[in-house]
Design a protein that fits this description.
This protein is mainly beta. The chain contains five helices and 19 strands. The chain is elongated, with a radius of gyration of 25 Å. The N and C termini lie far apart (about 75 Å).
């Protein structure tokens, strides 16, 4: 049976309790994912052992994980693997940093083993699930926004073992917010409408939202009685995240700002503001 002793030794109880390893503890330490000392010994002692093959790792909600300024997000990781002898365990975790010897942060599952389900059509294949809980206030800071690696491993029932330090990637993003106000309301046809708003994003250093500067934001319009917004123009946010532009009034409809996001910040869209054109 697999024993993840190294994780307990390196990361302490926090890593096994689904929380992060503080960077001060991580500096200069060995990899936190040397996961299977017993499996490796078994494999070395027998020529009949076949190492499993990992075919897929899936992150619940997709590879982009967006976090605001508070709360805990629970993410499910599923590892699909195969072995002639069958799969007894599969496991995965998130890590950030240049490599596993110099990681900045780790988010490991609460459980030391995955919950595995054997395929109904192929007994050599199993899908194993683990859950990771991420507390924004306690364990995220701005420098961690962007790309993360996903570690994965699998253990066969014969003791065969496979691990991948970076089987796939995930992107941790700071949540974005955008507002809109179109005025005047109502307005005469042909007159000018001024559309203002503000783009902001979560700051994981102080757990507040601040204006997101110098970003391209789409001004969109949906004609009354239709269901589709169309982009009218692109507006740049100013030094405080403010948005402002003018358009000509033509027909009744809804105006909104739409931010498509960046590599470190999630997308955001405002609820449409209706303008009655007389």
């Amino acid at each position: 049976m697999r024993i993840r002793a190294t994780v307990a030794a390196v990361c302490g109880a926090l890593a096994l309790a689904a929380v992060a390893v503080p960077s001060a503890q991580a500096d200069g330490k060995a990899s936190p994912f040397d996961r299977a000392p017993q499996a490796k010994k078994m494999a070395a002692a027998s020529e009949d052992i076949v190492n499993p093959e990992i075919s897929k790792v899936v992150i619940s909600g997709g590879s982009d994980l967006v976090f605001g300024t508070s709360g805990t997000k629970t993410v499910t990781l599923t590892v699909t693997a195969s072995s002639p002898s069958g799969i007894q365990d599969g496991w995965a975790a998130f890590w950030h940093g240049p490599n596993l010897e110099e990681y900045d942060q780790v988010f490991a599952p609460e459980a030391d083993h995955g919950t595995c389900t054997v395929s109904a059509t192929n007994p050599t294949v199993s899908t194993c699930k683990v859950t990771v809980s991420i507390d924004v206030k306690r364990y995220l800071w701005n420098a961690l926004a962007g790309g993360w690696k996903v570690y994965a491993d699998a253990l066969g029932t014969d003791g065969g073992y496979t691990s991948a330090e970076a089987y796939t990637t995930a992107r941790f993003k700071r949540a974005g917010k955008v507002t809109v106000n179109a005025a005047p309301e109502p307005v005469r046809k042909g007159k000018t409408i001024t559309v203002t708003g503000k783009l902001s994003r979560a700051n994981w250093d102080d757990n507040l939202y601040h204006g997101y500067t110098n970003q391209s934001v789409q001004l969109q319009f949906r004609k009354k009685g239709t269901s589709t917004y169309k982009t009218v123009k692109t507006v740049k946010s100013n030094s405080t995240g403010g948005l402002k532009t003018t358009v000509q009034a033509s027909v009744d409809g809804y105006w909104r700002y739409n931010f498509v996001g960046t590599s470190t910040t999630g997308k955001a869209v405002a609820a449409g503001d209706f303008v009655d054109v007389k």
